[in-house]
Write a structure and sequence with these properties.
Helix content is 39%, strand content 15%. By secondary structure, the protein is α+β, with helices and mostly antiparallel strands. The longest helix has 14 residues. It starts with a strand and ends in an 8-residue tail after the last helix.
Length: 80
């Protein structure tokens, strides 16, 4: 982990951010000894963001199955 002084970090901010992206974390140290961590933030993912599944079923087959199921339903809608 790399440690920069405040002045170095200010002068080389783009470089510091690039190093944090590739290395995980960079520390910035003030004259009084306090340190701060700079690290990349991983973007949150939606629980609905899932890869698709290749079933080998064509679009026309899916639409035909939907039509067929709708034709079987009584006029008042699905029964439970």
């Amino acid at each position: 982990m790399k440690v920069y002084t405040y002045t170095e970090a200010r002068q080389r901010l783009a470089r510091v951010l690039d190093e944090a992206r590739t290395g995980g974390e960079i520390r910035i140290k003030r004259r009084d000894g306090t340190e701060f961590a700079v690290r990349p933030v991983t973007p949150g993912k939606s629980p609905l963001d899932v890869p698709g599944v290749d079933t080998g079923v064509e679009r026309a087959e899916i639409l035909a199955a939907i039509r067929e199921s709708r034709e079987r339903e009584p006029a008042g809608g699905p029964t439970r």
